[in-house]
């Protein structure tokens, strides 16, 4: 068996069991990140130069990522049981079922017309303020989260697994988690988290565009491609832009627009078409991502079959 088969097994594990309800390794990693940050972040940051703050963050990346990536490589290369570890490590790196469950919880609240509950549930998967969102805003925020997390939490991990095996998936998933904790453009993390954000951008560059192509292939291809070309360059993130624009076009809905983050209104470019989304479109976004996962599994298996990889 080769990595495409491992990928299939890991996806099946995720579909069956979802994320571990307790003792998820990423939770422990997050605790370690906060501990190391308390040691590396200076007591008087205003006395540090930009270069020194960036160096501190880069040292943090090395200390956090290198040991775990090497450990993943060691486990994956163990005779006989390396196959087991490879599958389990990829299973822990993806979160397709968890993403589906969170989005379906929002759908349930919207269909019950319980807007306060829908706001609360969407607040669990987005970083924006949700207390004043209407039903269309809740649907829009949920779809954006499904599309973007489909790229960040699923397809990028699959890509790096197919390219580098379990060490690649572990490296990516931990780097993405580190970016989620340090990659903010605020006063504390603008320079300290600079290296984490740039490293995550580099790791996501190709996967994000492959994800955008996936959304286009499985949705409205004409609108998806047109929105990608015209709207992605206007988005503030070089990787989220193609993913969000292509996904919005593929679904035929309007995404983007103004949103409140930490009490400040952020004017975001409009993405997609003009139709406002609803709970039905959240379901369509979930199906788009899940069908994309199976498409990637199928392509991986087909490539292995054509190239004779199953005999390796």
UniProtKB/TrEMBL annotation:
GO terms for cellular component: plasma membrane. The keyword Nucleus does not apply. GO terms for biological process: cobalamin biosynthetic process. The keyword Ribosomal protein does not apply. The chain crosses the membrane at residues 59-92, 153-175, 293-310. It is a multi-pass membrane protein. Pathway: Cofactor biosynthesis; adenosylcobalamin biosynthesis. Keywords: Cell membrane, Cobalamin biosynthesis, Membrane, Transmembrane, Transmembrane helix. One of its GO terms (molecular function) is threonine-phosphate decarboxylase activity. InterPro entries: Cobalamin_biosynth_CobD/CbiB. It is found in: Cell membrane. It holds the Pfam family CobD_Cbib. Converts cobyric acid to cobinamide by the addition of aminopropanol on the F carboxylic group. Belongs to the CobD/CbiB family. This is Cobalamin biosynthesis protein CobD. It comes from Pseudogulbenkiania subflava DSM 22618. The gene is cobD.
């Amino acid at each position: 068996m080769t990595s495409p088969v491992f990928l299939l097994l890991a996806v099946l594990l995720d579909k069956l069991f979802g994320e571990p309800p307790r003792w998820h390794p990423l939770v422990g990693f997050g605790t370690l990140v906060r501990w190391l940050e308390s040691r590396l972040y200076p007591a008087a940051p205003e006395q540090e130069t930009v270069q020194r703050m960036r160096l501190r963050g880069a040292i943090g990346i090395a200390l956090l990522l290198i040991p775990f990536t090497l450990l993943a490589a060691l486990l994956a290369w163990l005779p006989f049981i390396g196959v087991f570890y490879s599958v389990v490590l990829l299973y822990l790196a993806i979160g397709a079922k968890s993403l589906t469950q969170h989005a379906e919880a929002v759908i349930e609240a919207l269909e019950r017309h319980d807007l306060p509950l829908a706001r609360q549930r969407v607040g669990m998967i987005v970083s924006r303020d949700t207390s004043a969102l209407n039903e269309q805003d809740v649907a829009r925020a949920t779809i954006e989260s499904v599309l973007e997390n489909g790229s960040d939490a699923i397809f990028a991990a699959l890509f790096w697994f197919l390219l580098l095996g379990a060490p690649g998936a572990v490296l990516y998933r931990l780097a993405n988690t580190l970016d989620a904790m340090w990659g903010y453009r605020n006063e504390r993390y603008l320079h300290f988290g600079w290296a984490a954000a740039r490293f995550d951008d580099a790791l996501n560059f190709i996967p994000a565009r492959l994800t955008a192509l996936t959304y286009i292939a499985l949705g409205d291809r004409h609108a998806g491609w047109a929105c990608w070309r015209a709207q992605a360059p206007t988005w503030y993130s070089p990787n989220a832009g193609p993913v969000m624009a292509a996904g919005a076009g593929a679904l035929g809905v309007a995404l983007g627009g103004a949103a409140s983050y930490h009490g400040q209104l952020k004017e975001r470019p409009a993405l997609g078409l003009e139709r406002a989304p609803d709970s039905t479109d959240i379901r369509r976004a979930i199906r788009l991502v899940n069908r994309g996962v199976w498409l990637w599994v199928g392509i991986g298996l087909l490539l292995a079959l054509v190239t004779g990889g199953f005999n390796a």
